[in-house]
Amino acid sequence: MERTITLDHGSGGRATHELISQVFAQAFHNDYLGQMNDSAVLPVPEGRLAMSTDSYVVDPVIFPGGNIGSLAVHGTINDLAMSGARPLYLTAGFVLEEGLPLDLLEEIVQAMAQAAQEARVAIVAGDTKVVPKGKADKIFINTAGVGVVPPGLELGGQYARPGDVVLINGTIGDHGMAILCTRQGLALEGKIQSDSAALHDLVGDLLQACPEVRVLRDPTRGGVATTLNEIARQSGVGIRLFEESLPIRDDVAGACELLGLDPLYVANEGKVLAVVPPAVSEKALEVMRRHPLGREARCIGQVTEEDPGRVALRTRIGGHRLLDMLRGEQLPRIC
Amino acid sequence: MERTITLDHGSGGRATHELISQVFAQAFHNDYLGQMNDSAVLPVPEGRLAMSTDSYVVDPVIFPGGNIGSLAVHGTINDLAMSGARPLYLTAGFVLEEGLPLDLLEEIVQAMAQAAQEARVAIVAGDTKVVPKGKADKIFINTAGVGVVPPGLELGGQYARPGDVVLINGTIGDHGMAILCTRQGLALEGKIQSDSAALHDLVGDLLQACPEVRVLRDPTRGGVATTLNEIARQSGVGIRLFEESLPIRDDVAGACELLGLDPLYVANEGKVLAVVPPAVSEKALEVMRRHPLGREARCIGQVTEEDPGRVALRTRIGGHRLLDMLRGEQLPRIC
User: Fold this and answer.
1) Out of A55, B116, B311, B331, which could bridge B323 as a Cys pair, Cβ 3.0 to 4.6 Å?
2) Domain B7-149 is found in CATH 3.40.190.10
3) Count of Cβ atoms closer than 10 Å to residue A101 Cβ
């Protein structure tokens, strides 16, 4: 097989079949994908279905802590986990640029396969398109996912109530700054790692111990501030963050300062914001801290009756700063 | 709102929210999409789940008989229908090029919404990314879909048996030639319409009347010849086509001749190949012909014991020509 992607690989003919069998099917192998029909036919346990999709266009495609392939698996798993679902199946749609080195594709596909395997999720269907050189940038990946929500569980951005507290499982802004430092060739490069990770096990532990959780959401594009704005609007409540409680790595804070960015607007790919009633906040933090992805879990804010629909930061010196949704494209192609 | 897409629309912040609420949510509105959480939570009837994905990169994005939006809905519905599933839910992932006119996006999104509505399928989750000008070509759309396969139904490329017959619901090569004639500015332009259509109702009628159907598959990229090669390999049988039975429009045949293409390798987007036992072939044809998308249904070939894994054409003058899988990229960006 040619060691670069050609238009031929997108023809639907012989070369497409070779690419599928030699690259994708080998990496992702499972019984469902092996059916090789137009769609995979899948068993599902009882419950409601959660369904989500995300396209990944991150630049660069390989970065400290992951690549576009592992990110595409983690991101969609996390979207499912945020609705309380146990992720079951993923689909993968590839748009490849003619001339993409096959070695690079294989590295990305291997990372996807490994991420899916570690998360015990099967990639059950896929699609590959190739566009002429210059009509896309290396590789774009779409993953769509399906999971099952256990009966009785009801999470959603509309359920935050005054008095609730806002928890996070670790440091803020790592993914966005890892990408940006790599892209800009900052001297810090390589030090800041993306936090890209699958959160469904952590979330599973949390929901098992604290079914009272009201909202789960992952602060990706737009960061913690934008995500909390969404929740504040959906629930018609205010949210207040405590500056001194925000977990931010020193190197991330330094890079943000250097580039004039606010870490509260920088994307995360392995973080979950949990809004929980105050009575269970200690138990929730304990459970999160027992999981490797939640060791630095902490309470960063609370839900208020005042200022419905708005998010404010209580600064170290006791002042208040309004945190609106992100305006303007802070970091293009961050995921 | 700006009348062209800016990087800002992909930030995840305020502009993204405006785009979602003013363009996507209005067009696709339904209760599931309205949940506005990280994934949609959905009821599913009992049965096995069918799941499929396809990315669409067709060029031009608007063509006689449809556009990339309607195509993206029809294509994934059809992939689900081919496994005997009743399509229920779609996700939509957009990769937009900076500078895309918002009017064009709205036209595409409207066509998606209309196609989904006509097919009684809900678009339940979505995602939008924007890449800088020159890093994609106008718009790429991924649709992933979920459907339910009724208990007991078992279709698949591996079930063709010698003696079975091969049926098709209408003319061959329309979609590919509609795209190619438009792209090349051929004088014929506008006369050849894409056959892009959702086939699940036709397939539903067929399976209700003839549950004995063995294989259903839609001959998209690679065309009828490549799709039948897949079935021949999966089932370990030979397939023989009858040249005089192939339904091909005169203008499609003419355009193919002009461009040196074989219509058997040209993509279709509203056609289904059905492999059925001979005893039910007449009934199957009758049922298909009663549906508006099957009026020209006919038998085009049969499954043989000889030449397992191969497809041959019995020509008008009685000779035989081997039809291999498509080699080389005949028509890039056809879907």
Assistant:
1) B311
2) no
3) 12
